[in-house]
Amino acid sequence: MRISELSARSGVSVATLKYYLREGLLHAGLATSATTATYDESHLERVRLIRALLDSGGLSVAAARRVTDALDTPPPARHDLLGVAHGALSGGPLSPAEGSAATAAAALVDALGWHVGICAPARAELERALAAAAAGGLEVPARDLTAYARAMHKVAEVDVRGVPRDSAAAALRHVVVGTVLLDPVLLALRRLAQEDVSSRTPS
Amino acid sequence: MRISELSARSGVSVATLKYYLREGLLHAGLATSATTATYDESHLERVRLIRALLDSGGLSVAAARRVTDALDTPPPARHDLLGVAHGALSGGPLSPAEGSAATAAAALVDALGWHVGICAPARAELERALAAAAAGGLEVPARDLTAYARAMHKVAEVDVRGVPRDSAAAALRHVVVGTVLLDPVLLALRRLAQEDVSSRTPS
């Protein structure tokens, strides 16, 4: 299809599609002349993913670029998928300095007995999130943090159960898309559940 | 204290503090002349909260303004706290048109037997998040959505248990700050737990 049809079918303007092409978010079409190219269903699917990552996922263009780069070059070993996905989403692994400062996250992971690599990006994310909460006047008691962690482990069990086992590329896509696009679903469920719990709590 | 000291203690520039004052995020100081005012600990605490909402919470200035407005005028009835907090965070309740379209959220809430108001902002949030996931190529099976919901109910039980019961203002602050600032903590825990589950899953 021409870029005008890709625009019509995706609902994304031609100018924006050209921006995605320039930024490397969208793979090039098949050149049919010096100035025109043709696009296929893989482009349409990618454009929809880009919109979802930028809009619902709230990712920056740079982060979305890391995600699409990761999708285009999946790692050979299946157990490296999560590291690639989380690295693309978080902006990279911990620096050694951050790693040694990540004490609250390390203490929690140790206490829970979780198997998590020492340089996992999620350790840095947790440490930064706890530091930001503390800066905003919210200290999370260790007991509550443990309860939150156990609940999110249930979430992760569902996450991992759904990963397709046929190809590394499909698995990576599922992990990245599932992580970004289900985050808002989980947070909305948290608010709905707060209402339910609150309505059952005597005031 | 003078605005220069408020700036030094909060780490926020004087120009930015004046912006917060103009936008109504920060309450005015006590005027000591036509051009100067004095600030106290309540201003310092508020500036720290504003930074947390904007930085870690990722809120827009308009959303942060709704949060601080809500904090300054807490509702008289305790059970209205969550509605005010969620309304401030989500941008408002469902419109009637959105409400009638929110079928996936309604079906889930019904199936779980949760007590959630028909116009709760979180219903709209869930509906939009599910629609965005579907647009990005991710349909969540009903069985998985139910499992996610049960896990987030555990999170909400911890959330509501921690709400202070002494004053409506303190309770509202806890709910708003806890919701915004713990979202990133929960999402980081999800990623850590994914690593643990994945490491225990034979590849």
Features:
Multidrug-efflux Transporter Regulator, Chain: A, Domain 2; mainly alpha; homodimer; two-stranded antiparallel ribbon; 2 domains; 203 residues; MerR-type_HTH_dom (chains A, B); MerR-like DNA binding protein (chains A, B); DNA-binding (chains A, B); DNA-bd_dom_put_sf (chains A, B)
By DSSP, the count of extended strands of chain A is 2
Structural class of chain A: mainly alpha
How many helix segments of chain A? 10
Uncertain stretches of 5 or more adjacent residues of chain A = none
Biggest chain pair interface: A-B, 86 and 87 residues
Oligomer: homodimer
InterPro entries (chains A, B): DNA-bd_dom_put_sf, MerR-type_HTH_dom, MerR_fam
Pfam families (chains A, B): MerR_1
GO molecular function (chains A, B): DNA binding; DNA-binding transcription factor activity
Domain HTH merR-type (chains A, B): 1-70
Describe the overall structure.
- Chains A, B: InterPro entries: DNA-bd_dom_put_sf, MerR-type_HTH_dom, MerR_fam.
- Chains A, B: It comes from Oryzihumus leptocrescens.
- Chains A, B: GO terms for molecular function: DNA binding; DNA-binding transcription factor activity.
- Two copies of one chain form a homodimer.
- Chain A is an all-alpha fold and 203 residues long.
- Chain A has ten helices and two strands; from the N terminus they run H-H-E-E-H-H-H-H-H-H-H-H.
- The first copy, chain A, has helices at residues 3-10, 14-23, 41-54, 61-72, 81-90, 96-101, 103-112, 121-135, 142-161, 168-200, and strands at 30-31, 37-38.
- The first copy, chain A, has a two-stranded antiparallel ribbon.
- The longest helix of chain A is centred in the last third of the chain and has 33 residues, at 168-200.
